[in-house]
Amino acid sequence: MYGEVRVYAELTRNNEYNVQTPTSQNPNTTLIYHFNSPFELKQAVAILIKTNKPLTLLPLPRVSSICALTPNFPLAQQIFNYINYPEIPLWNTCLRNLAEGNNVIDAILLFHQMCSYNVMPDSFTCSFVLKACVQLLDIYYGRIIHGYIEKLGFQSNLVLINALLHLYGSCGAMVDALQLFDKMPQRDIVSWNIMITLLAKKGDVDGAFELFSCMSERNLRSWTAMITGFVHCGKAKEAIRLFIEMEETGLRANEVTVVAVLAACADLGSLEFGKRIHEYSNKSGFRRNVHVCNTLIDMYIKCGCLEAAKSVFEEMKERTIVSWSAMIQGLAIHGQADEALELFNEMIKTGMKPNEVTFLGILHACSHMGLINEGRESFASMSRDYKISPQIEHYGCMVDLLSRAGLLEDAYELITNMPIKPNGVIWGSFLGGCRIQKNVEMAEESMRHLGILDPLNDGYYIIMSNIYAESKRWEDAARVRKLMKDRGVKKTPGWSTITIAGGTHEFVAGDDNHPQAEEIFKRWDKLLEQMRLKGYVPNTSVVLLDMEENEKEEYLYRHSEKLALVFGLMNTKSGETIRIMKNLRVCEDCHAAFKVISEIVKREIVVRDRNRFHCFKDGFCSCKDYW
């Protein structure tokens, strides 16, 4: 450093840095405390040397921040060494600021500088660099820090080890994360929670639950992580069961837990439980939480309570694009296309810009209700007005809209000119339109693609077989079903569920194993007499099996959604809405039957099938037509 002092003294004598003797009015005095570059720092040092003032007057955090990412890093080191000040706390302060700032990569660059100039890291250094690595998903420097942790004996520092666990898992290195977790000499509740969250996110919910079950102590985050994991892995029943178990321990859910369990209710269509969580949420002060409100909208929509969803939406003081998009999508799948379009226009007037999901809702609305012109305009508006490139899902909606409207040539042209390679869903939508239009040739073209893109999807084989059967091409229908058998493709069995008094009851077609099966069949026979008086005639054309007409009728009468409906009528109060979920599409006969039944029993019947909601009331369905 003394060599540097001599250099700076020489510089001042030569006036290379334009140094003046400081006075009360001299701006050089300010420079000592407010230098903004390494050049100005050198000026400040020169001033102090010339005036025989100590270098300790320099603001050292400023020295480190000015030199950190420049070739003048050694200059800062020399200054710290000269005044005998430990440098690592100063560099750590810089690291922390960079890791928490907007340019996180600079924290890694500073760490690289420190390594290059032999600055030995401490536990704080490791902590700040790991924080940056997690944000950048930088496993390379993460492994370097891991090496320092082992070398410097920080293995018992749980903050560092937990950060490493998080980094490895976030970067997809689950083997490393599990090995590190297994080798930990001690673990805290954070360690367990990190591993449970990581495993659940990677889809290993069983592994996550195994760890959860081994925990001697659990906090709210532990329960929430496991509940969320079940939801994300499609195990909504287990999520709700675990939530109830958590409540029994005395823990109270926070907003994150509420969002997770509401998502489970949405997946299951568990309306009553969802209402209970809604009430708890309001009492707990979460009424203004946007995430909770958005999930409530989604839950009510998926449970068939459109009015309740509207109520939540209208009460929101703050709405995000997620709020608007969820409500628009909800109106769409409930057959309220006009309202969906009106809400979209209202959103635009507020200044909120639509995103890809918003347009997906609009296109669904147009597709479900056959609004061809509106659909085409919305699709064009995406790129024209909002610079949003349509994705595969948007093209799928347009293909569905055009093909179901009979514009098969237009739909086919759209598919062949797509900038994205069409997938099975695109060709599947086209196949569905071909069935409605009874176009065998184009259906066969669609099936050629589906045989390559999605050869194990049973639905496509069944549709193609049905298309042949409706055209009286029985040999071709049989050939498709044989092909299905040869490829080991099995038909997905249809089932329907209905929830009454907190209990969920499941029915399959022809189900005679239910405890009330005999009563259900008798009640159906009585209901059928009333239906015939209203003009109902069974649509046996949907039964494409080689059997007598009366056998086809009996087959229709035992469809799972009809059994669930009759069970609901038997076990609910007069006037109460019946809510049914079905895993497949509602058949045309059930659709017609439910309209008649809704008029006879003076009840609203809500059916959620694979594609949409059907709200039957007073002899009508919310859908414009059965497509």
Automatic annotation (TrEMBL):
<feature type="repeat" description="PPR">
    <location>
        <begin position="289"/>
        <end position="319"/>
    </location>
</feature>
<dbReference type="InterPro" id="IPR011990">
    <property type="entry name" value="TPR-like_helical_dom_sf"/>
</dbReference>
<dbReference type="InterPro" id="IPR002885">
    <property type="entry name" value="PPR_rpt"/>
</dbReference>
<feature type="repeat" description="PPR">
    <location>
        <begin position="320"/>
        <end position="354"/>
    </location>
</feature>
<dbReference type="Pfam" id="PF01535">
    <property type="entry name" value="PPR"/>
</dbReference>
<feature type="repeat" description="PPR">
    <location>
        <begin position="188"/>
        <end position="218"/>
    </location>
</feature>
<dbReference type="InterPro" id="IPR032867">
    <property type="entry name" value="DYW_dom"/>
</dbReference>
<protein>
    <recommendedName>
        <fullName>DYW domain-containing protein</fullName>
    </recommendedName>
</protein>
<dbReference type="GO" id="GO:0008270">
    <property type="term" value="F:zinc ion binding"/>
</dbReference>
<dbReference type="GO" id="GO:0003723">
    <property type="term" value="F:RNA binding"/>
</dbReference>
<dbReference type="Pfam" id="PF14432">
    <property type="entry name" value="DYW_deaminase"/>
</dbReference>
<dbReference type="Pfam" id="PF13041">
    <property type="entry name" value="PPR_2"/>
</dbReference>
<keyword id="KW-0677">Repeat</keyword>
<dbReference type="InterPro" id="IPR046960">
    <property type="entry name" value="PPR_At4g14850-like_plant"/>
</dbReference>
<dbReference type="Pfam" id="PF20431">
    <property type="entry name" value="E_motif"/>
</dbReference>
<feature type="repeat" description="PPR">
    <location>
        <begin position="219"/>
        <end position="253"/>
    </location>
</feature>
<dbReference type="GO" id="GO:0009451">
    <property type="term" value="P:RNA modification"/>
</dbReference>
<dbReference type="InterPro" id="IPR046848">
    <property type="entry name" value="E_motif"/>
</dbReference>
<comment type="similarity">
    <text>Belongs to the PPR family. PCMP-H subfamily.</text>
</comment>
<feature type="domain" description="DYW">
    <location>
        <begin position="535"/>
        <end position="627"/>
    </location>
</feature>
